[in-house]
Amino acid sequence: MPVILLTGFLGSGKTTLLARWIHHPAFADTAVIINEFGEVGLDHVLLEKSDDRDVVLLDSGCLCCAMNSPLQDSLEDLYYRRLRGEIPAFQRVIVETSGLADPAPLVNTLAADPSVAAHYEFAGVVATMDAVHGLAALASYKEAATQLALADRVVVTKTDVAGAAQVQAVLEEVARRNPHARAVQSPGERPDDAASAAIEGLQAHALPAAQETPRPRSDRFSHLLRYGIGSFTLHTGQAVSWPQYARWVDAMQRTLGERLLRLKGTLVMEDGHVYAIHAVHHLFSPPKALPDDSVPPALRGALVVIARDLSAEDLEEIFALLAQEPSAAR
């Protein structure tokens, strides 16, 4: 079952978006895990209806769970309650983070923890961005910048109260800081459509259509963004052997370590199949084989690296290991 991580800075509207999701008929088979109370919207509903229970069935059919234990335990508990018929069957899970959370550890858990992978699949990160105060938050708080950098989708909120110039400035900043994320606006003329668009076709390894013509070398950017967070696009058009992949992973772990906020994309391996590649910090998930027709040819071998304090030249030196023959690396 897919698990979606919903993040966003304090007051950016993520709980409002979550409330839209759970009241939309298409999300009636959704379980929601909340790891912080206190915001308006869904949280107070859960508190009012909880009666000291940690899992609540809302009128819309959604399940809400207050996360009082590690995320792995909460997911496992939900799965086995579902299996035993104690709660209605759900088909997806949305995890809402704290407004001040660094989402990287939770991404790590969802993408790399074996106990989670037994029953769930990480689908990606949705981040909310406030059209009124978002730029100020990015300038002042590292957490806000990290949340945006790790997003696969960005929902620009409060567009109904922001001016057109404000909205445009936010969209441009989102594109500058995270050119690999698809941005949608909410609320629009039909808020439910924006809520659905935020997760439509979401996949942790997916790259947007704008990257379907990747450059052969890293997509250098002219300046380092605030807090040293940068985004790089890399591409290799050749098949990679498993020894090459192992050397590259080892070099990424040793050289980048905690500076690697996130890596996602695909590689064509020596068996001819396309594999989804995902990593956070020093932890690399096992490559996952994808259906051969699910990845457009131009996106095969494309990787996005989001990291702190890393130059394109340093990354290209490590990336070259994927192109070296085994004899050249010895």
From TrEMBL:
Residues 229-323 form the CobW C-terminal domain. Pfam families: cobW, CobW_C. Zinc chaperone that directly transfers zinc cofactor to target proteins, thereby activating them. Zinc is transferred from the CXCC motif in the GTPase domain to the zinc binding site in target proteins in a process requiring GTP hydrolysis. PANTHER family: COBW DOMAIN-CONTAINING PROTEIN, COBW-RELATED. This is CobW family GTP-binding protein.
